[in-house]
Structure formats: C-alpha cells, structure tokens
Design a protein that fits this description.
- About 25% of the residues lie in helices and about 25% in strands.
- By secondary structure, the chain is of the alpha+beta class.
- It has two domains: about 150 residues, Glutaredoxin (3-Layer(aba) Sandwich); about 45 residues, no CATH class.
- A seven-stranded mixed sheet has the order 2-1-5-4-3-8-9.
- Helix 3 links the parallel strand 4 and strand 5.
- It is globular and about 60 Å long.
Length: about 210
C-alpha cells in the first residue's frame, strides 16, 4: 500500500552519522516540525550502483540543505558494515566523505513498514518460516514533510539507479505548492509556470503552453 498522504512509519535504529560515529536509537522524529526529510533505501553496502547513488546524494547535499531538507539513507546492513564502507576511500569502492546519516535496518522492520523489502516472510508446508525473494530493500525514495506525512515516494527495482535531481525537483514542487497554493504540472521545474487548482487555472495554463 502506498504511504503517500499517511504518517511515515516511526522507527528507532542504529545509524552512522557524520561518516564516522555510530549512534543507537536514531529516529526521523528529531526532524518533526523543523525540516522535511528525503529518506531513501538502497539494497546493500559494498555493491555497484549503490555507491553512485549515495555519493550523488552527498554531491547535492548543499542543495537539499539550503532547502532545509535532511537527507537520510538506510539499508538492511549492520551499522558496522556502514561504518566500514564509509571509511573506505572511493578509489577502493568505498563512500568516504559521506556525512548524512545512514540507518542500519538489520531487523528489516523499517523496510517492511515502508513497504520496500524485496520479498516477504511466509510459512511453508512444514509450518516453518521462510523468506521468498531477496531480504534487502529496493531503491526507494520518500519525501516526508515537517509534519511527518509522506508526500512523495518512488520505488525502483534493484538494477535501476535513481535520479537525484528529481528528488530536488519534487522538493521544489512541494515548496511552491506550500508557498503559493498552486499545483505543478508535468515536467515542472523551479522558475516555470505552475497553475491554480481549478478548471479555469488548467485552461489558462494550457492556453499559454
């Protein structure tokens, strides 16, 4: 079930912050009332597409921060695996230099509650619990507003890397709607025309474009 329009699932889990420190009980609740959050899942540490995405978020981190948006990553790896990867140089396949938090969803409950685990648990004919699929997270991105409501979600299959600029565009669209009350049409970008949420507004927009 899509989470858009609903409260983002709450969690407390270990995380690595500032690229070097393990903390217990990390939660997105710390941002409530203060900042929007881009919360993204990736499949595994020490893989291939994942570091390109994680480093791309870091490269755009200033763009998110100037919009008062926190970026937080998450996978089902342990916090120790995260720390090892975060302290491995990029030339050796690591993600050294990443400073935003990366959460350890070892129990896989965060991925389950966000609906992005690439499989599911079920009982076999002998009554034993089995996992069908792959026990890692899909490439999922959520925009959570200051009230803790999910305003956008995008889920990619494992081989498909995401577009970080699209995450920024979605933040800009949310900001525009909050500030002006206008809705953002297809392919809208900051600085382009939006439109009023009415038949007249749509007609006026289409007539100009």
């Amino acid at each position: 079930m899509a989470l858009v329009g609903r409260k983002a699932p709450v969690f407390n889990a270990p995380a690595v912050i500032n690229g070097e420190e393990i903390v217990e009980g990390f939660s997105l609740q710390q941002y409530l009332g203060k900042r929007d959050v881009i919360f993204f899942f990736y499949p595994k540490d020490f893989t291939f597409v994942c570091p390109t995405e994680i480093l791309a978020f870091q490269e755009k981190l200033a763009e998110f921060e100037k919009r008062n948006v926190a970026v937080v990553g998450c996978s089902t790896d342990t916090e120790n695996s995260h720390l090892a990867w975060l302290t491995t140089p990029k030339a050796q396949g690591g993600i050294q230099g990443v400073t935003y938090p990366i959460v350890a969803d070892v129990a896989k409950t965060i991925s389950l509650n966000y609906g992005v685990l690439a499989g599911e648990y079920e009982y076999n004919e002998e009554g034993m619990m089995e996992f069908k699929g792959i026990p890692i997270a899909y490439r999922a991105t959520f925009l959570i507003d200051k009230n803790g409501i999910v305003r956008h979600e995008l889920v990619n299959d494992l081989p498909l890397g995401r577009n970080i600029d699209e995450a920024i565009r979605i933040v800009d669209a949310l900001r525009h709607n909050e500030k002006y009350g206008e809705v953002c049409p297809a392919n809208w970008e900051e600085g382009k025309d939006a439109m009023k949420a009415s038949r007249e507004g749509v007609a006026d927009y289409l007539a100009k474009h």
